[in-house]
Specification:
The chain is mainly α and 74 residues long. The protein has five helices and no strands. The chain has one domain.
Length: 74
């Protein structure tokens, strides 16, 4: 899967379900991922949308997600 700012959050979670728990470790903005409101937002949100909404460094977030996936696949 090519991960970039246009990647849908739900597509990412569907492909890598274990990633939900790992993402929570990235900071407070991600700890709400299991809330009902977050689940509604994630249905249509891209990674770029999430970074913009929570004022996160998009490059850093994408790099961290790719690193998590790489480490998990080892």
């Amino acid at each position: 899967m090519n991960i970039n700012r246009d990647t849908k959050a739900m597509d990412l979670i569907n492909q890598y379900p274990w990633l939900t728990e790992e993402i929570k470790k990235m900071g407070d903005a991600f700890k709400i991922i299991d809330s009902p409101l977050a689940k509604l937002f994630l249905k249509s949100a891209t990674l770029g949308d999430i970074c913009a909404r929570f004022n996160l460094d998009e490059t850093k977030v994408l790099e961290e997600i790719e690193k998590m996936i790489d480490e998990h696949n080892k």
